[in-house]
Amino acid sequence: MLRILGFLALLVPLAAGAADAAAMARQGNGKGAAPCMACHGVDGGGMEANGYPRLAGLDAAYLRHQLDDFANGTRTNPAMQPNASALSEDERAALAKYYSAMPLPARFAKPAAAPDARGERLAERGDWNRGLPGCVQCHGPGGVGVGANFPPLAGQPAAYLTAQLTAWQQGTRRNDPLQLMQHVAKQLTPQEIQAVAGWFVAQPLPAKGDTP
């Protein structure tokens, strides 16, 4: 009986953490952090028109790392920095787990955009004459993402992908391991950045547990 009570006691803070994260996503934390869903959508799928990224289904460690980097100024963004800074370490961890566990919105299974041949070539094969690897070599088949360091590119708004590649290129984003993305982005023209972003938008994103 004591063992059962002890196990249940461990579950209480876990359930409370999930509930707190859900409340923060809907209402903010009352200490300066705005509701996450205001920009990232009720379903965590982001907002294509505004270029706000999808959070649902991303790796928890990756999300936590980005929130921490926004909070400490390593990664800059006029909207995210004040919001992440208003979150405690525990709140950032809880939100990362909450969005990681959120199911992928069904609309990502069959994207409507048409693939771009130039974007496909760069995404899948790169251009080794320029020392440029294919995006999928790190980000997985179809850009589904690999672990904490290589997030999904499929299922992200084209405007968001374009903005991030441009930021890597210009050196205004620098929080990647070994500065790999800065090297890659600097090899791309603005037209190529748009083509790659357009290709990933056109890729279907399998649900968790499915085979890419």
Automatic annotation (TrEMBL):
SUPFAM superfamilies to which the protein is assigned, alphabetical: Cytochrome c
Keywords annotated in UniProt: Heme, Iron, Metal-binding, Signal
Record's signal peptide: 1-18
Pfam families (alphabetical): Cytochrom_C (PF00034)
Domain Cytochrome c: 23-103, 114-204
Name of this chain's protein: Cytochrome c
Species: Rhodanobacter geophilus
